Amino acid sequence: MNYKFKFEKKSPESLGISSAGIEKFIDKLEKYGLTMHSVMIMRHGKIAAEGYYKPFDADFKHRMYSISKTFTSLAVGMLCDRGLVSLDDKIMKFFPDMEKHSVHPYIAETTVRDLLTMSTPFSDCSYLLSPGKEWTESFFTTKPQKPAGTVFLYDTSGTYILDVIVERITGKTFLQYIMDNGLCELGFSEDAWCVKAPDGCAWGGSGVICTLRDLALFTLVFTGGGKVGEKRIVSEQYIKEAVSKQVDNEETGHRTYGNAGYGYKVWVTIDGGFAFLGMGGQLMFYDRKKDIIFLCNADCQGYSSAYALIYECLYGCIIDEASNNALAENAQAYESLEKRLCNLELLKPVGAVKSDISKEVSGRCYTLSENPMGIKKLSVEFSENSGILKYENARGEKEIRFGLGEYVFGEFPETDYSGKKIGEPLGRGYRCGAAGVWGFDNSFKIYVKIIDDYFGNLVINLGFKGDEIGVFMHKTAEWFLDDYQGFAGGRDNAS
Q: What is the pTM of this model?
């Protein structure tokens, strides 16, 4: 039997949603300055709206960050269905090689269920509490702070231990296991993959890389009680438990909209809904009352209120207004929405593209005093619609090309950041977009967006004063761009 799921797109109005409301939603996200990469709205299993912000498209494999944890949960549920794992199994059962260590009783008593519900014995990720150790070993040798199963605390190391369990039992990564056992049969991308941790095991805490439609298909497993169409992926009982409150997280959980507890790597929300959350704005939100699914990819790292604003816009423009019955078709509004969805692009920085001093400072080479970035020399060259930032650090001469008020896409000029495995050099520059604007006549900002297997934001502030320059760099990214933060001052000695 062919189980491949075919996404069906219908007009928003036929699904009880206003086309104008969806376009208003997109407008408000832009007004709030949220850097979106993609959006999708589904109702009753049908797509009402789907759009990608250039250079992203439907085929782009996007890092899902902590939504990856929910993929791990599905793998564990499938193992439970097959009798290979029990939620009440103590994890030591799967790690006899760790018995050589003096494992603390809090850790020895930890169960699979404790890891699924973020109720580990630690106050933080064990690999952060014990840096320098292999991640698996760190979990079993780090001093715990509380008995497992007592208090919720967001701890990614527990997810990693589940990933190792899946891999030890199946001989496959958790992602490959669920792909081979139903997801790919439904149409999930066969070339989806997962970043590996230093141990070499797939990092299910943050590393899944797949398309937005892959995420939508994955979501349907949870909204469909473990089934997509006629294809059962996991038991209905496991899904029921996974999306239900298993632990209280009111005080120690993320302050997300409608937070009502935590299931098995799933955020429980009000009215029986649930959400998958990933750093930077990776989001799946399911409103059960209205049977509406919202999915998006984004890079809002550093924007602390991003999720709250997305929820505010989603409810105000779409969910609260959704009808239980089909609406009258509105050809004009639908055409306007479709045109908007086809022409989405990365949010442009706000500022002027020209300054009275641009010619004066263009090409001047500034020698910088000692600084945290290790940059020795820096210059910026302006042309009509673009420019080049040139600088020299300990790794040699570098340059970043940028557009004036528009993003220019190329590669960020560093090759020693993580690749397929955390800590493993990529060997090439990360794909990125860069745009520059003037704030005041003497102040220029370059916005750099890393859009690769890892995502990150870098803002480079340049302030000019006679023959002097002030530099401030600020990054928002996970585990890279650390040497692009700080202040520096310098002078054009040639003047």
A: 0.96
